[in-house]
Amino acid sequence: MFERFTKNARAAVQGAVEQAERSGARSVDAEHILLALLDREGSRASFALAALGVASAERKESLRLALAEARRRAGLSQAEAEALAGLGIDVSEIIARVEEVHGVGAMSGDRKGGSRGLGRRPFERGAKEVLVRALRTTLAHGDRHVGDEHLLLALTLLPGVPAEALADHGVTHESLSRVLYGEGEAKAG
């Protein structure tokens, strides 16, 4: 599958692995792909993010903070936390109690120093879904190669924290499609 990936898409995937390593995560997940895309410059994904107002360091940091807060909630999206609240489960209270006993970030799933085997980190289901959806998105748009913009589009299509954080910052599948495929005034080139 990776033979169909452009240089920028491969760099984004490698960046996701590096993001997971830096955070001490045992595996690569969809949020690591988003974090890697935020670090990219001079690519179609970075152009699209800039066109949608997520170019400044401040806006990118806001997205990173939203992802970090979700990690603190053990990866629950805000919508999932609200659904649990509807059932009488206060996620904030649970987090506070767990962190009181085990320390801040105890529910994040990151384990410092816990590399597996030769240091390779497996891709979790969410990251694999992003890669597969990116390939499907590429084919659906009649493109020949998977670019980093397809990874970004895939992140907006799959339910979860990355899509929610992007939408909260004005980046939706519809807005990205307008920017990337010319269904509006801005078009990536």
From TrEMBL:
The GO terms describing molecular function are: ATP binding; peptidase activity
Q: Which UniProt keywords apply?
A: ATP-binding, Hydrolase, Nucleotide-binding, Protease, Repeat
Where do transmembrane segments lie in this chain?
Answer: none
Which Pfam family, any one of them, does this sequence belong to?
Clp_N
Q: Which PROSITE patterns match?
A: CLP_R (PS51903)
* GO BP terms in the entry: proteolysis
Extract the Gene3D superfamilies matched here: Clp, N-terminal domain
Domain Clp R: from-to ranges:
2-189
Q: What is this protein called?
A: ATP-dependent Clp protease ATP-binding subunit ClpA
Q: What is the native source organism of this protein?
A: Streptomyces pseudovenezuelae
What taxonomic lineage is listed for the species of origin?
Bacteria, Bacillati, Actinomycetota, Actinomycetes, Kitasatosporales
